[in-house]
Design brief:
Blueprint lengths: L1 H16 L5 E5 L8 E5 L1 E4 L6 E18 L4 E18 L5 E4 L3 E5 L4
């Protein structure tokens, strides 16, 4: 069942990515080497806070999962989270997402 769910989610995202009306933004990683990708019908960056992105319509956010590990609390990034929503605000400085509408969060163990 989990494999089917991941397959359906990835198929849905692949179909969205082929929509010529969608906008795409790659947000560089704060630490580490994995960046986040933002996809939506409308993507706007806050003028007063350039780390804040407003996304509307068919929102898909693929962001790395990073956790502080060990005594020195070094970030270890492994896998991704895939969030779909009607609208969302993405904070690129913290990785936080404020999502609204039909929200779904799917963990992805490997990059696709």
């Amino acid at each position: 069942m989990k494999v089917l769910l991941c397959t359906l989610t990835l198929s849905f995202c692949t179909a969205l990515a082929q929509d010529p009306n969608l906008k795409h933004v790659t947000v560089p990683a704060i630490e580490g080497n994995k960046s986040a990708t933002l996809t939506a019908l409308s993507i706007e960056r806050e003028v007063d806070n350039p780390a804040l992105y407003h996304l509307k319509g068919s929102v898909v956010i693929k962001a790395p999962v990073c956790l502080p590990v060990g005594r020195n609390r070094a970030l270890v990034c492994d896998g991704y989270r895939l969030l779909t929503a009607d609208e969302a605000d993405f904070h690129s400085d913290t990785g936080e997402v404020d999502a609204r509408g039909s929200v779904h969060l799917t963990p992805l163990l490997h990059e696709k």
